[in-house]
Amino acid sequence: MSGKGKIVWVRTDHLPSATDRKRMVTSALESGFADIVLREEDAALQKVGRYFPITRQGDVLLAEGKQIGVVLTIRSHKDSEKASVFKGKHEYVLVESHDWKVIPLENLIAEFQGTSTKVIASCSSLEEAKLFATTLETGVDGLAITVNDPSQLNQFSVLGRSGTSEVSLMEATVRSVRPVSVGDRVCVDTCSLLSIGEGMLVGSQSACLFLVQSEAMDSQYVSSRPFRVNAGAVHAYVLGADGRTKYLSEVKGGDELLAVDSSGRTRPVVVGRAKVEVRPLLLLEAEAEGGRYTTILQNAETIRLCTKEGSISISDIKEGDKVLVRLERGGRHFGHAVKESVVER
């Protein structure tokens, strides 16, 4: 079951027709969802594709034969008072209501914050989903998409790809660019087509990651390869879809990394392969908020860094140019952000 960002389930248990429930499962898989709530009698639907089935038996939620949660239907304030009974007793509480005005969702979020029980809110529209995901800043732990028409699922696929998360980008001023001989660099070929202005956050220090654009632009020498980010030297950090960094040398097919555009919008992308090859390299040094940071990239005109205005080729960058970066205070321990003083040169 997904553990990255907001949990997203697709429900089929509310549909009276077995045909509609099968269509919903098929549509969920086609839209990229992998956690699906089934009726007890629909066990055969588990063979439609590979996904994580959650079976509803009455108000009990089961996975792999074990209870993982309960369904709480709220029709009145009295029903909402029952919620506290489940705190710490179950992994999930799936909350559904035909009228969310009956109970302010922030009450439920506050009630369960800091407990081991995750609140999954049933939602029937994308607007509702986005609201639930941001209520009280943190939002609910997860969303259960509850629609009647399988064709409606496609509009929710943005939740599975990117949720509501954004990263904060700022400008760093380039101080120097110089060749550093040759070394092993990594091309990350993803299973997605990336756009112009979209790429990955990469850098030699975890405190400052540079937004390296995908090869979505044509050049006079080679055709575009919008699935590819020529990310840099093997030692560099790259930001994963789970918010952790990893070394480019560790990236392999099947990993999920974070694609980021110049506005800070994000989405997870699956790595198809990572190609490590010996290439000539450049060291770029930039300054932001009083700190100096570096990244090492291949010396080739197809490598571009994102800017507020668009992007600029590494072969054209000069002192004084501004590029987009993400700054982070503290350090990293096995990829996790930690609150301590760490200096990387």
Keywords:
Endonuclease - Pi-scei, Chain A, domain 1; 345 residues; mainly beta; elongated; 8-stranded mixed beta barrel; 2 domains; 22 strands; TIM Barrel; 5 helices; 43% strand
Reconstruct the topology from this structure.
Elements: E1 7-11, H1 18-30, E2 35-39, E3 52-57, E4 60-63, E5 66-74, H2 77-81, E6 92-97, H3 105-112, E7 118-123, H4 126-134, E8 142-145, H5 157-161, E9 170-190, E10 198-205, E11 208-213, E12 228-233, E13 237-239, E14 245-247, E15 256-261, E16 266-288, E17 291-298, E18 304-306, E19 311-313, E20 322-327, E21 331-333, E22 336-338
Parallel strand pairs: 1-2, 1-8, 2-3, 5-6, 6-7, 7-8
Antiparallel strand pairs: 3-4, 4-5, 9-12, 9-16, 9-20, 10-11, 10-13, 10-15, 11-20, 13-14, 15-16, 16-17, 18-19, 21-22
Number of helices: 5
Domain count: the total is: 2
What is the distance, rounded to the nearest whole angstrom, between the alpha carbons of the first and last residues? 38 Å
The largest pleated sheet is described as: 8 strands, mixed, barrel
Averaging pLDDT over every residue, what do you get?
88
Q: What portion of the residues fall into strands of 2 or more residues?
A: 35-45%
Please bin the fraction of helical residues.
10-25%
Order of H and E elements:
EHEEEEHEHEHEHEEEEEEEEEEEEEE
Q: What's the total count of β strands?
A: 22
Report the C-alpha radius of gyration, rounded. Answer: 23 Å
Detail the poorly predicted runs. Answer: 331-341
Topology-level CATH name of the largest domain: Endonuclease - Pi-scei, Chain A, domain 1
Q: What is the CATH domain class of the largest domain?
A: Mainly Beta
Q: Strand arrangement, largest sheet?
A: 1-2-3-4-5-6-7-8
Label the overall shape. elongated
Q: What structural class is derived from the secondary structure elements?
A: mainly beta
CATH architecture title of the largest domain = Beta Complex
